[in-house]
Amino acid sequence: MKLKLLSLLLIPVGFLSSCIHRPDTVFYSNWRPREVAAIPLNGGETRRISGIYTKGLVFNQKQKELLVGYYAVNRLNLDGRFGDTVLRTGQIKDIALDPGRGFVYWSQYGKRGTLNRIERCRLDGTGHEVVVSATVIGRIDVDPPRRKLYWAQ
Question: Does pLDDT of 130 surpass 90?
Fold first, then answer.
């Protein structure tokens, strides 16, 4: 099987911590400078959405908002207005969304001497629970049609 490179997008950023794409836009979070930004794929200008740092970033298509995570799961409007805090938690590594079931998932560093975890709650912040505890948990993703949660160790 031959693979063909269709296009290449170079994002001029400092220390990229998270990146997601939609059909017309790439959203990314950067450590230096601290920002969440959007790059339109039609060749338009990069637009800074917020001056916050986040390790996790996911697009909520239903609400047309970003869910971001660092020490909390927060809503961020696409015009840069800070939404609300869904849930305060420990240091987040990554974030994923199951929009059909209404859950947001995140991987979290364990406190000294404890296991790392994947936790979840409903989009209104209720129903908070630990889903998985393990020695190493990195990036996560949700496959809503199959009702599966994947993570890298």
Answer: yes
pTM of the model: 0.81
d(Cα 113, Cα 97) in Å, to the nearest integer? Answer: 28
The CA distances from residue 42 to 26, 39, 58, 60, 84, in Å, are 11, 9, 21, 21, 30
Report yes or no: 65 and 74 within 8 Å, Cβ to Cβ: no
Q: In what order do the strands lie in the sheet with 103-108?
A: 92-98, 103-108, 116-122, 129-134
Residue 12, pLDDT score: 57
For 72, residues 6+ apart whose C-beta sits below 8 A from its C-beta are 85, 86, 87, 88, 89, 92
Closest Cα to residue 56, out of 47, 67, 45? 67
- Taking residues 74-94, report their average pLDDT: 86
- The pLDDT mean for the chain works out to 83
Task: Give dist(CA 87, CA 70) in Å, integer.
Answer: 11
3-state SS class at 71 = coil
Residue owning tokens 């970033």: 57
CA distance 130 to 146: 20
pLDDT of 139 reads 87
Asked if pLDDT for residue 25 goes beyond 70, the answer is yes
